[in-house]
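I hope you will forgive my troubling you with a question about protein structure. The matter concerns a single protein, recorded as an amino acid sequence and a row of backbone structure tokens. Please examine both parts with care and let me know of anything in them that strikes you as inconsistent. Thank you for your consideration; the sequence and its tokens are set out here:
***
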Amino acid sequence: MTASNIARLYVSAARLAALALLFTGCVSSDIVYRNSQFPQPSAAAKGFVGYAQVDTKQTTCGNCHVDQQTKWAGTKHSHAWADLQASGGATGECQACHSVDDKGNATTDTAAGYRSTLDARYQDVQCESCHGPGLTHITAPSIDNRPLASIAVSVGSDNGCSECHTGVHSPFVEEWATSRHGIVEAAPSLNPACIGCHTGQGALAAFGVNTNYVEKESTTPLPITCAVCHDPHDPTQTHQLRFAINAPDLDQNLCMRCHQRRSNPDPTASRGPHSPQGPTLLGTAGWFPPLLIAQGITEINATHGSQVANPSLCATCHVNRATVTDKLTGAFTFQSTGHNFHAIPCLDDTGKPTADSTCVITQRSFVACTASGCHGDENAARGALISVTSQVDGLIVQLNSLIAQIPASEFVTGDNKITTGEGALFNAQLAAFTGQPVHNPFLIRTLLTASIQQVELDYGLTLSGSVVKPLTKADFDLIRARNARKPSPTARRTGSQ
């Protein structure tokens, strides 16, 4: 054995015990301490070690981190080089993002890894692509020399996911930066009750992620970055997401893990809806008036929340990929990734989605609405939205006019009960919440109509002007039929969430 070809790490039983204590926080099955063999990298590689065995895609890091190696082998990163070759074998920056080098980690020396050696051991997006050079840690493992990955993301960053997932054909970071996920709101980021959805570190902790990363103990909160929703190692869910996007369950659906707060009135406080989108989609949001409860109706399903008609649920509309072409030549100009999370984004003159959220409805793209085949074309989807918005707006105005006549004694904070007035007010606020009518128009219209009827009944009030058509037995039968056709989500939440 020559030192230039093979390096061995011998770990005694005593040292094994010490190392096990050293890596506090790591699950015992994550690391297997063993004699590790790997071809010594050249000096030109700048500390990157790459594959220990190219033909089997056994990473050197994976010799010890066996669990992560096994999971990584099922990801797209593990065959990134072959995919690049299949697409035409592009060179330069394309190869840099499909191999191990300075891209994706804190290394800034472009002459490193594959770029300086052209060695096949550095092909594919391996552990070191995100974690950085591993030679020092592999040679003498310690808690101080662990090459931790960063989960920070920003436009123009020279570290992390955004260094590769950027540009015209893959503008994930550019679009993400224009979204609400890309900002840290001051007040929620400081509130312990809010950080689980409003900061990157808090969300990962809430998801049960206990792995280490550069910013884990930082007092500077991160926004909801790529690694919050995507697991760099685990291919179990589509797109390496941490939770499924097709689960009609508030605890198992990735988007709904956060978009579910205060979807029902709180009997201990007067706060209105906060992020009720998930329960609205699944038909369980809002205050169900007694006249609905008496009919056995405690949820109202609709097409958008159907696993049959809309299996990707939130993601169908909010994460819609689209190719933008020049309107005159038809040539490719831009690949929208859907990571601005706008269901109907505003478009600029070239057809590219923008950060604007105030444009008129005729300047918005409704491509996402046609993705599942529910709407025949964009015009049909646009017309449906205009129609339901007009209906809901009219019902909100009428319900609010009744609420204004209810005695103030019916709105007592902290009395641990929900009066008809409080429930009706909550439903008016729920219906007015951004995007709510389209999430489940059948639910919203029914709750508003039933609230108007219940307020009139319980307080002896009469709605002046336009008369709302009361719910009939035929309406109740239709609701039951809709509910019977779709999986019933065990998703109702109560209390102060």
About this structure: The longest strand covers residues 332-336. Residues 378-403 form the longest helix (26 residues). The chain has a mean pLDDT of 88. The chain has four domains: 6-147, 172-240, 260-308+381-485, 321-370.
